[in-house]
Every structure is written in C-alpha cells, then in structure tokens.
Amino acid sequence: MADKTKIEWCDSTVNPIMGCGGCELYPKPGAILTAIDTELKTRIEGWKKGLAREVFRELIDVAWQDLLEKIGEPLSGHTNEMTTTNIWHLRTQFADRVKNQFGGKLSFAALWAVESQITCYAAKLHLNKGRSIVNPTRNVHAGHALTFETVTQFPGRVSDMADEVDLRGADRPDKPWLNGLPRLVFVSDMGDALTRKTDFPFLQRELAATQSENGLKHLWLWLTKRPGLMRLYADRVGGLPRNYCAMTTVTSMKTLHRVDELRDVNAQCRGLSVEPLWSSVADEIDLRGIDWVIVGGESGKLGVVREFHVEWALELKQKCEQQGVAFFVKQLGKCPVLRGEPFRLNAPKGDDWTEWSDDLQTREVPEYFHYYRAAGVPSPSALFSC
Ligand code: SF4
Predict the structure, then answer these.
(1) Which partner for 183 in 167, 234, 247, 259 could form a disulfide, CB atoms 3.0-4.6 Å apart?
(2) How many CA atoms lie within 13 A of 248 on its CB side?
(3) Which residue is closest in CA terms to ligand 1's atom 8?
(4) Each residue's pLDDT tens digit, 82-111
(5) Mutational pocket test of ligand 1: of 15, 17, 25, 252, the residue with most ligand atoms within 8 Å of the beta carbon
(6) Domain of 99, in residue numbers
(7) Are 351 and 330 in contact (CB under 8 A)?
C-alpha cells in the first residue's frame, strides 16, 4: 500500500533514510541558543549572552537525573547532551524559569523564542513520536528514527514503492492537476537522505529499485537542502537517471546559493521548492536550468509562523512565465498577507486553492513529466542522462 500523501505536488512519499542533520528550519543547538539570547535581550533587562545555554544546561541535568530515577538505564536515543531535541522538549520548563525570574508576561516570549526556531514538519513529527528526556518511558513510533538527529536507514522502502501501481493515465480526483502523469514519488519528506556522505553506498543500493522494471514507470522527485552532496552522489552513479527530478529548497535570499548548486547536479530535470518563503527572492533568483518552481507559505502555529506575502508568489510566477518554467502554488500558509494586510483563509494551511484569487490558482508541472513515458517505459540502459 503506497504511502499516500496530501502534499499537492506528488502522489506518494518514500524515505529510505529518516532523520536529518538540520537546516534553517531545524538549526543546531548553538544557533538556537544564540537566537533565544538575541530575542530575550531585547525584552528583558539583564538578560545576557550565554544565559539561554546556562538555563538549558541546568534543565537538562535535572531532567537527566529524573530520567535515571524513573528508568534506571537510559534507552537508546536518550541523551543528556545539548541537542535540539532536548531544547524542544524542555521549552516549557525554560519558559517557566523565565517567568519565575523575570515575570509572567515574558513566559510567552521565551516559548516563542524557542518555537519560532524549530519549524521543520518532519522534525516536529519525530519530536512528538521519538525519544524524550521528559517522557523517558515513551516508545518510539514505528518507522521513525529514535530522535530526529539520529539519522537512520530503512532498507526496502524504495523497492516497495517501486512495486506500487502504475498511475500513468490515471485521474486523481483530489489532485486533478496531476491527472495523466506517471506516479510522482517525493523522496525524502521525513528527513534529508543526503545528510551524510557515508550513506551513499546504502542509497545507491536502495535507489537501484527506481531503475527496476516497475520503478522506472514512476517519476522520483528527490528533494534535499544539500544539493552540493546531491551533485557528488549523482557524479558517483554516472548522473541521476532520467526518471528523476533533482530538487532543492529555497526559503530566502540566504539560501539562493542552493539553486547554483542544484544546477551543477547531473540530472535531466530540476525543481525548486520555494517553501516556506520568508522574503522576496524573484529579483535575484537565477532560473537557468530549472524546470519547476513550487512556492508556498509557512504552516504551523499561529503567532509562530512567519508572514507570506502573496506578491512574492506573483513576482515569481511572472519570472517563471518569462523563462518558460512550470510554476506551482502549493499553499498560502497560515499567515498570508496581501498589500501589507494579513487575511484569513478557512483552510488551516491555506491550501484550498478555490479560496485564492485567479492569478494564484496555478498548479503546473514540467512538460518533461508528461513526455517522460510518451514513447513507452524506457529501458534501464536508456535511463541515464549522460
Ligand atoms: S528534513 Fe529538511 S526541512 Fe527538516 S531539518 Fe532536515 S533539511 Fe531541514
């Protein structure tokens, strides 16, 4: 049974590797603690640099002692290190400390300072289903990594997905914009399979199934925030097969360098997930060699998610139209803004396109997806782009 998904731009997802080394949506502990200090220094007189680390260190030590008293031996995945997982699980205790020391009104600011830093959806699932220092007897949800930082291999998943029903020519009643296409499989929505170079041999073995007789009926959309490593992987295997779309994510000007790195990946087709978009990028983004742009706002908790200015999407749309790049609006997120004014949509993630203005209702896919199998399923020997 295929792992069906609500994600608008694909039919299924598959994760040969779960967990991740992080990115701007799940920063390293040092970056989170610095951001918390920066935020609280503006609100609390006497808050000094390094105080967030001090408080979290104490909280981790106390929680660790409690854990040892409760279960004796820590289980695999429990740690008393300063990790992003521990910071997340101890965030309410942190907010309580701030409240007790500096006053009740600052509790929300302290909580916000932590939660606004950790917004990756895949990470949140792991934080809710994996090991926790404050809930040491909790079992890890089947099929997940022990913690999000524990990058874990799951053999056999890609092969199972390759054997799924061929969807070419099929209608998708809930995603009509995909009608007629081969099955679109999003690789790596629950982590970043390219976190570690040491996983390359495993990936090469597992991804061989995408070139099997069944696997090559589908299109595999492989997304990473590490396109530099994808380039190395692609070079190792002689280029990504023709039934792949190499993809990376851009969230602001700071991550535009990933587009240049993606251009260097030896692949037939390349796409960008410009989601969540936090600022305008249309003036600077270089779309040469790019076939697909997906754009979207941030979803999550109101008060924590950042604004998504609809104009940023429309500017990108115009640029894509000028350069012949397929453009896909995924969702407007929790906090859409038009002409400087926030507006509310009924759909919680802003993903019901019937609520949008006509100019936003665009869900295109690259032409390549349509003609990949026009002449029949390619033979394995014809799969490589170089
Ligand atoms: S899974 Fe993706 S979004 Fe989440 S932390 Fe890893 S790279 Fe970032």
Answers:
(1) 167
(2) 25
(3) 23
(4) 999 999 999 999 999 999 998 877 888 889
(5) 25
(6) 29-129
(7) yes
Residue 218: burial class (beta carbons within 10 Å; 0-12, 13-18, 19+): buried
- For residue 357, the CA-to-ligand 1 centroid distance in Å is 30
Instruction: Say whether both 100 and 227 belong to one domain.
Output: no
CA of 170 to the centre of ligand 1 (A): 31
In a domain, 346, yes or no: yes
Give the pLDDT confidence of 214-264 residue by residue, as tens digits. 999 999 999 999 999 999 999 999 999 999 999 999 999 999 999 999 999
6's CB contacts (< 8 A; 6+ apart) are none
- Residues 6+ positions from 339 with CB-CB distance below 8 Å: 311
- Structure confidence at residue 386 (pLDDT): 36
Residues within a 6 A CB radius of ligand 1: 20, 22-23, 25-26, 120, 122-123, 191-192, 225
Indicate if 102 and 162 belong to the same structural domain: no
Asked whether residue 135 is assigned to any structural domain, the reply reads no
